[in-house]
Amino acid sequence: MAIDTAFTELSSFLGDRISRSKPVLDQHGGSETHFASAPPDIVVWPENTNEVSRILKICSHAGLPVIPFGAGTSLEGHTSAAKGGVCLDMARMNQILSQDPGDMIAQVEAGLTREELNHELRTLGVFFPVDPGANATLGGMAATRASGTTTVRYGSMRQNVLGLTVVLADGRIIRTGSRAAKSSSGYDLTALFLGSEGTLGIITELTLRLHGQPEEIRAGICAFPDMGSAVGAVQQVIQMGLAVARIEFVDETTARAFNQYAGTEMEECPHLLVEFHGSPTSVTEASDIFGEIVQDFGATGYEHATKAEDRNALWKIRHHAFYAVQSLRPGAHALVTDICVPISQLAKAVEDTRADIEASSIPGPILGHVGDGNFHAILLIATDNPDEMAEAKILAERMSRRALALGGTITGEHGVGMGKLHLMEEEHGFGWALMGDIKTALDPRNILNPGKLVPQAG
Amino acid sequence: MAIDTAFTELSSFLGDRISRSKPVLDQHGGSETHFASAPPDIVVWPENTNEVSRILKICSHAGLPVIPFGAGTSLEGHTSAAKGGVCLDMARMNQILSQDPGDMIAQVEAGLTREELNHELRTLGVFFPVDPGANATLGGMAATRASGTTTVRYGSMRQNVLGLTVVLADGRIIRTGSRAAKSSSGYDLTALFLGSEGTLGIITELTLRLHGQPEEIRAGICAFPDMGSAVGAVQQVIQMGLAVARIEFVDETTARAFNQYAGTEMEECPHLLVEFHGSPTSVTEASDIFGEIVQDFGATGYEHATKAEDRNALWKIRHHAFYAVQSLRPGAHALVTDICVPISQLAKAVEDTRADIEASSIPGPILGHVGDGNFHAILLIATDNPDEMAEAKILAERMSRRALALGGTITGEHGVGMGKLHLMEEEHGFGWALMGDIKTALDPRNILNPGKLVPQAG
Asked: Where is the FAD-binding PCMH-type domain (chains A, B) (predicted)?
């Protein structure tokens, strides 16, 4: 049997860095969300790019699916081994290969997490800005073209990855991009692999763009009488081009969840959390303008802090939002929606979403990276209740279709995986078929993370 | 004969927007640089995306090459009809389809030039920043992934194109991206077509990201005792993260060319031209810091201006650099090199290039967008002197190989075309073969701008 033969071949050079034990398989086939568990047949822990190449040659020869696995924090079933196969757990490829603050570049292995990287960079006066909330691996963040709280200022993975090392389906190794700030040298292969969700190749190393630690950072929070005011303030801030480094919205239910989960004492109403980076002068200037704008929109008590511990306390709340919100309904599964619309359509998108959720039987706090026009409703579904799941899926689909009608996209940052396959043709038309053509050209046997992103045969 | 049949079919719906007259063909097959003229068989002037689709269906059926043509300012032979065929002159697709300052978006046709766009946007308080110098079409800029003087602050086409309308080889029309600020919805088709040089599809419309007119703009110029000091100052400015909106280097020969061509009275020594955008406070702050840095590097007479006419006079000089430099050797052909290196390697790359040129018999002024690590030597070759051409090509190759050795790229902004084909495998390894696989998947009959960018059969 192909699996047994592959296991023997892989064991020959992986030693004890391979497993078929059921708990290990289950752990790698599950997810933090509503997708059913689909474990792989084998889990391996490669230690370098050459090993990944060797593994892919074996899997390619045997026609076995290969599923890359980072921190397991993805939300659309990306790591599900829908067709079995070999899971590549990247946990042992977590080295920083080089740090070069002079060029504002770090070269890292794909299994390193963003928090590990920033911890190491702390003393060098630089940092890597992309912050999706979860402590994801940088390879996983590249694979989903992740973004997050700081994207409004620093961009997403698209703007902050200069190059990649990728192992192709047949085991060939390529290096995309360079250490230069830009290039016009042929097709943008870096961009092609960013967001490809493991379906075109396995990302093993990344060349990342770093940013200087701002001289001053000021974080703030303010409370709004209603959601419309908060979102209106965001639109105004973005449209006037105010240089915010972060601008996050949480609704009253999310505020309540924070209070329950983390013991905070937030007023249970909509809030904006904001951050400014720059020189003391520019930060003060921007923060003052922000204060005036939110006051015009009825906000009260705009508090801000520059001390690191106060700022960290504020953002820790936001980073635990997913778990805090889940605690509102213990044991529930989450269906996390993720749309992104032009900023002029944000208020309509958020308000129509809220109306949909209020008319449903499902709790769904709303929060998001509103400076980009990106927000989430976290739909909490009682485990094993198919009616609720069906209702949640209808809610989620309505959100996605609304995003398209408003000129936006069905996913701002979480990706397609299995959860949004059925909406891809609506968003992309023939473009989705084109994605399928590219997939076939690069992975003719369809071994790379099958069942995700592209049109499925049959 | 295929051409005659195609001409008849195309004439049936293009009326007088089609030509086989020799002067027209010659005009479309030439270039401002050293490439030999290679005229197409037919030139057509489509007026909308549907017409482009119809043209491509006819050419695809007949197996005829299709070469898109914008302003004809590309520098690597991109518009050469190396295998004959039908040239699509995009001049009549020059409309602004929508302007939406609220979302900071404009939708335009591919034949619109960047200056035409910015002229229209002027009264709306927004602008499109990418500035390659030449008044190129936006479609052409997308096709070469252009950048330029403002990329150090606002990014290249990669960061400023949100979506594209593209006609595929078989005439199908796709729309990539959306009006949202970001997306994780599948492969980044927008990025794939940016820099594809007409080899994967014909770009007919673009959704562009606009930026707010800065409250204040300050431009400045300063003179350095030698090239090393000027480049050293740039490295320091970039490494400390000073927010320059433009930072351009010109060497003493370029300064002399400006004086001859434009009647300026620049000191004939290396200069930096710089610009700052922001609030009056932040601009003053940054400009003062810049003044201190360049003084440390021996610069004299840092002059700056905030009035529009003074700033425009300064940048007009820079924008005419190509023609000014050409005037140093009337009638000469230009071979324009274009490498980009990590900022830490900029001084070495520039100085070694200078040494190479000084040891040669060819004049080669050096200038560039040094904030990105990108610079050019404009090698001036006596027309019809094969020895000089051979020598210039060796110089250019040495520059490209040096860029690769220093972690950079063989082209920062001009693209591959025909001029850099022979260096692609050195830069990309198997990645270049992968580009060929993608090309074959999207254009199996190789009708789209054949002879450029990807590996050539036979």
From this structure: 35-213
